[in-house]
Fold this sequence. Notes:
Blueprint: E1 3-6, E2 10-12, E3 15-17, E4 20-24, H1 29-44, H2 49-65, H3 68-78, H4 86-99, H5 101-104, H6 114-126, H7 130-149, H8 182-190, H9 196-208, H10 212-216, E5 223-224, E6 229-233, E7 240-244, H11 247-260, H12 281-288, H13 299-310, H14 316-322, H15 341-370
Antiparallel strand pairs: 1-4, 2-3, 5-6, 6-7
Amino acid sequence: MPTMLTDSEYRHARKEKRLAIGVYPETSLADARQARDEAKRLLAQSIDPSTAKRLAKQLGHQAAINTFEAVAIEWLEQVHQHEVVPAHYQRNKRRLERDVFPVIGKRPASELSPPEVLSCLRKIEARGYIETAHRVKTLCSQVFRYGISTGRVERDPTVDLRGALKPHKTQHYPAITDPKEIPALLNALDGYGGQPTTIAALKLAPLVFTRPGELRQAKWADIDLEAATWTFQASKTALPHIVPLPNQAVEILRELHGLTGRSEFVFPGVRSSKRPMSNNTINAALKNLGFKDKMTGHGFRAMARTVLAERLNYPEQYIEQQLAHAVKDSNGRAYNRTTHLEQRREMLQAWADYLDTLRSSSAQAASASKHEAPPALP
């Protein structure tokens, strides 16, 4: 049966006290004797052993809640998950759990030096993930800034790492932006002979030019065909994003609703209607149509951005809002993506009509060329 081990009574500050050392057999007799000798040493220095033990326990708890991992988890739960969409939150949480916590997670956040953080990032670089190293550096900086705001960290050591990582080259997705080349793309999309959901996604992608992941994960609950709007959380933030649907998009969605309307997803997967379309479906279709290294699902965004600005002369502000980019105005305030809805509605309808014009002009040119009279024989 467990027995409480105690030292003999002692006096401190004219009061009789008794020191609890531990429970036998969890606490060995040797450990008990060592604790007793330490208590006598403290008493010789006029220090109350019970008070010293309580303070040590409190300091140990304080150190535990001030580790980088503890501060990071608190930031993730209290701040980050309320700022971004769930998928983005889970992705950043996994990055910290996989690449940071095993290396510096148990270290007090206030004691971490720039070289220690850099050594952590170097391990990611060594695996060839340069972009991830930069993203993790940004995450660490956010954790340190949170630690500063809660009084547990004095400064952000990642500030001293500017230029220390290998530069990350921005990836540019292949995209067709020349209006002369767009008709061939549109005609190819119209003639695609794959799954009906894939055909619909290919036709809708250039009309709404959302991120590919946002398109394939679209849900019927977020789409109001009567109001011609699609409202969802943009991939990078937790803010709502409203896509005004042009008439052509509404027509595609009405027809598709008869096929997939019972599913949660507008574009359900082939194997299961409970999951969205595969993230490679649209790119694979474009590849099969002969547009490998020329066009991607993400490329529809670049196509719309370029032509809307250079050919249709729409303000950059409306275009960036429609792309759900985190742009700011001259006063540093982030644009509210629910504003300028009517202007963006007019812009998307003009864009859809412009694509129809390109498609129609191409068909007329092809028909005229086909019916040209053959040259006279000499």
